[in-house]
Design a protein that fits this description.
- The protein has one domain.
- About 75% of the residues lie in helices and about 0% in strands.
- Helix 1 (about 15-35) runs antiparallel to helix 2 (about 40-65).
- It is globular and about 50 Å long.
- It has about 150 residues and is mainly alpha-helical.
- The longest helix has 30 residues, at about 75-100.
- It has helices at about 15-35, 40-65, 75-100, 105-130, 130-140.
């Protein structure tokens, strides 16, 4: 279940689309808070971005997990988490190394704009992507997205 909407019985394909849009809005609000030195805007941006991230993360898992056979879901999930940790940690380490050269605020702006651009690219890919392959793979596992057999993630 995501904060963006109550889910009953499976994945909503628009969780990723909604989540990336809300994530982008939250990061933009956070960058506005940094620029204006407004702690309230920074906090609000963090809350909005976190809500968008949660919807995106949940939607991605609800779409991805049914494509694996039940005996392979643990491996898929662990690979997904390793990829997530690398995707979060490596850019953060790079940003931390850039702070002495660029300064904290400029580094935050570059990082934030990169997050917004990547989130919008993900949203466009989700809107115009072909999900026939995902549905075909889920059909092979005898678990349909949105079915009662789907994992309760």
């Amino acid at each position: 279940m995501t904060v963006s909407r109550v889910q009953v019985g499976g994945a909503d394909p628009y969780d990723v689309v909604i989540g990336t849009g809300v994530l982008s809005l939250g990061v933009a609000l956070s960058l506005f808070g940094i620029e204006q030195r407004a702690i309230g805007a920074l906090l609000a941006g963090t809350i909005v971005a976190g809500t968008g991230f949660g919807a995106n993360f949940s939607g991605t898992l609800r779409t991805l997990l049914p494509t694996a056979h039940p005996d392979q879901r643990a491996g898929l999930l662990s690979t997904f988490y390793v990829e997530c940790y690398l995707a979060f940690s490596l850019p953060t380490i790079a940003a931390g190394l850039a702070v002495p050269a660029l300064g904290l605020a400029p580094t935050a702006y570059v990082y934030g704009v990169a997050v917004i651009l990547l989130a919008l690219a993900s949203m466009i890919a989700s809107l115009f992507g072909n999900d026939k392959d995902v549905k075909a793979q889920a059909a092979k596992t005898d678990v349909q997205p949105g079915s009662a057999k789907q994992c309760p993630c």
